[in-house]
Write a structure and sequence with these properties.
- The structure is a single chain.
- By secondary structure, the chain is mainly α.
- It has two domains: 1-52; 55-92, no CATH class.
- Helices cover 66% and strands 0% of the residues.
- The longest helix has 37 residues, at 12-48.
- The chain is elongated.
């Protein structure tokens, strides 16, 4: 007894229908992905948009960035160790 797959195999009309169904499913999936990505991007933009008007806050830039010998001397093993083991108030 032949099953449906055996009966449809070699039938050009059924192959075209199957290909069209696959294309429709893929197209809907792609458009859904694009719509979700666009909605997410718009939501993120909407949430963070007010920050575009905000001034930069200079709390500890001098101590921790511009005048910090661990930062200004470049990337090294000892500087990486300092970065991951030091606390917020220790600069040396």
């Amino acid at each position: 007894m032949a099953n449906c797959h055996d009966a449809c195999r070699g039938n050009p009309k059924s192959e075209v229908i199957a290909a069209a169904l696959v294309l429709v499913v893929m197209t809907k999936s792609i458009w859904l992905d694009i719509a979700l990505a666009t909605a997410l991007a718009l939501a993120v933009f909407r949430v963070f948009q007010p920050l575009g008007k905000a001034d930069f806050v200079h709390l500890d830039d001098e101590d921790y960035v511009r005048e910090n010998p661990h930062v200004t001397s470049g990337l090294s093993v000892s500087n990486l160790k300092w970065a991951f083991t030091s606390g917020h108030h220790r600069c040396s």
